[in-house]
Design brief:
The structure is a homodimer of 201-residue chains. Helix content of chain A is 67%, strand content 0%. By secondary structure, chain A is an all-alpha fold. Chains A and B meet through helix 1, helix 6, helix 7, helix 8 and helix 9 of A and helix 1, helix 5, helix 6, helix 7 and helix 8 of B. Chain A binds a DNA duplex (18 and 18 nucleotides) through helix 3.
DNA sequence: GTCTATAATTCGATAGAC
DNA sequence: GTCTATCGAATTATAGAC
């Protein structure tokens, strides 16, 4: 059968995204991707040159979040969690990044830049201290990526079963504290957390 | 040169742990591991049978946390963060799990059971509702694993530069809220906490 | 544009000499 | 116990016919 060049490329890309998201870089073979797409493996090479470039093309998706400047200060956390969760579902790209970032240094680099670009400005705008914006963004990233890892990759049952709203309710406040409120604004802040070992009874 | 059987096995295991932790399962080849250990690749097969069994042996480490029954209720979060962080440093096993869990289903399973076994009882003991213990443990796992991912695997600069104490101060309260306090004890979900801004909404 | 055939590597695994 | 040599399978990648 004959297809247009563009149609074949699109089929290959879709299959590649699925395989990379499900199996990571090494286990997703060009042969299996081609088979999924119903196309000869050599076509994959023809269109994308080599596996690395196919992978790059499969990752190349706009991951920008909706404009965040206008959110009320108090709902930054909940809004962000909601935004990220809706991004994750129905978009395999972030799953690819998460599953391959552990072994592919360039993917890790891309992940760093994505989260820095999206969260540092928010932390700088809402929190008092712009000096700690990167630190705050890093902490927020850790919680968001951790949720994604447990829910979509490692498949922790409780994390999979929670509704989106439930997740927003639980981790929204965490992100809120990391990005806008002080680190001493939440629970046990009166007491220096340093007292792990010796603290009062 | 001749070594004792035990010495060779030990050398191989150390090299395997390093490679698996740094490159994941597929990229860490038996050949490279053997080269690191200064031993012939065939010896690896002789001692461990196949790559999968070598991998299993490299992961087989006791990851139990120190006894947690006696911690004061208010320092559960800080104590746990401190305990996990000190576990991560100087112990490649958890890095291996994190880097291979994304592509190795059996590793993901082991990770699930480790975190469930260690955190569910704590959540059940300290939080009011034992029904939500698994959920709470899942949330705590997500934050702890997220920190580990960003700090040790993806190498987010801000997360690498933070001291252990700083991390305890920041994420301790998060774990505390997930595991022992109610979900509405921090800034309540959905509604402003009374602190920061102009009311309502 | 599509496919067949095959080159070129790489890796896990085995057999056997020393 | 250790190493050499090598097999067999899988994979990326290329060349060329239709």
């Amino acid at each position: 059968m004959k297809r247009s060049s563009a149609a074949s490329k699109s089929l290959i890309l879709a299959a590649a995204r699925e395989r990379f998201a499900a199996e990571g870089y090494e286990r997703a073979t060009i042969r299996s991707i081609a088979a999924d797409a119903g196309i000869d493996p050599s076509m994959v090479m023809r269109y994308f040159g080599n596996k690395e470039r196919l992978f790059a093309a499969a990752c190349e998706v706009d991951l920008a979040l909706p404009e965040m400047r206008a959110i009320p200060r108090d709902s930054v956390g909940a809004t962000l969690v909601e935004a990220f969760l809706s991004r994750w579902e129905g978009n395999e790209t972030l799953q690819i990044l998460l599953r391959t970032g552990s072994t592919h240094p360039s993917v890790a680099e891309r992940m760093r830049s994505i989260f820095a670009m999206q969260l540092v400005p928010i932390a700088a705008a809402f929190s008092g201290d712009p000096a700690a914006a990167e630190k705050r963004a890093g902490l927020a990233s850790s919680q968001i990526l951790g949720v994604a890892l447990c829910r979509f990759v490692l498949e922790f049952q409780p994390m999979m079963e929670m509704s989106r709203q439930e997740l927003v309710d639980w981790v929204g406040p965490t992100i809120q504290r990391y990005l806008v409120d002080g680190d001493a604004s939440c629970p046990p802040a009166g007491r220096p957390a340093a007292a792990t070992g010796g603290g009062g009874a």
